[in-house]
Design a protein that fits this description.
mainly alpha
């Protein structure tokens, strides 16, 4: 866990090579401990760093390994997180229809097991892919669903200080919806979301 966490910090700092080194160390220990759970998470982390380095085939290999381990032990939380990343991988490869399918599946499963953080991100990815496919009306629907989930998550936070910080990594979903509505000439609708 410690090696994985250090890897996550390096990835957040955009030090992808270093993050891979620490995930590699974590993986060695996961293998020694025969932890399929650990290997599932570590392979996903490695795939995410490799994707940011634009090593898409290597990333796909790690996501598939992660999926195998997580499926084997029935870890549905990691499965939906991997599906989300496979959706992002499809976006990177400009495989818009594939991305729509993967994000849709990730959203359905994450809703079933109540992983809201994956749910809204999957809807956002799906919306982005739908825009690329010139399906703006469908994109608006899924973006609005994503915003609804984020709003509900924010409303559930009781301390106002936390509510403000909560939105920092979620504002893009609002921005993308507002711009989409503006591009479609739906000014009033876009203004409501801007507010």
């Amino acid at each position: 866990s410690a090696y994985n966490n250090i890897g996550l910090v390096h990835r957040k700092e955009k030090q992808f090579e270093k993050s891979i080194d620490f995930f590699g160390e974590a993986l060695k220990r996961d293998i020694q401990l025969k932890s399929k759970w650990g290997q599932g998470y570590t392979h996903r982390n490695m795939g995410m760093s490799l994707m940011r380095m634009e090593k898409l085939d290597e990333a796909a290999m790690h996501f598939n390994q992660a999926m195998n381990f997580s499926h084997e032990i029935g870890d549905r939380t990691n499965v939906v997180k991997i599906m989300l990343e496979l959706g992002h991988l499809a976006l990177e490869r400009k495989q818009w229809q594939e991305a729509v399918s993967l994000f849709s599946e990730a959203h359905e499963l994450s809703s079933t097991i109540n992983v809201k953080e994956v749910s809204w991100r999957a809807l956002r990815g799906q919306g982005f892919a739908l825009i690329q496919l010139k399906k703006n009306e469908e994109a608006v629907k899924v973006y609005k669903q994503a915003v609804k989930i984020v709003d509900a998550m924010r409303a559930a936070i009781k301390v106002e200080e936390f509510q403000n910080g909560f939105l920092t990594d979620k504002q893009d979903v609002y921005k993308e919806l507002i711009l989409l509505l503006l591009n479609m000439g739906k000014v009033e609708d876009s203004f409501q979301y801007a507010e």
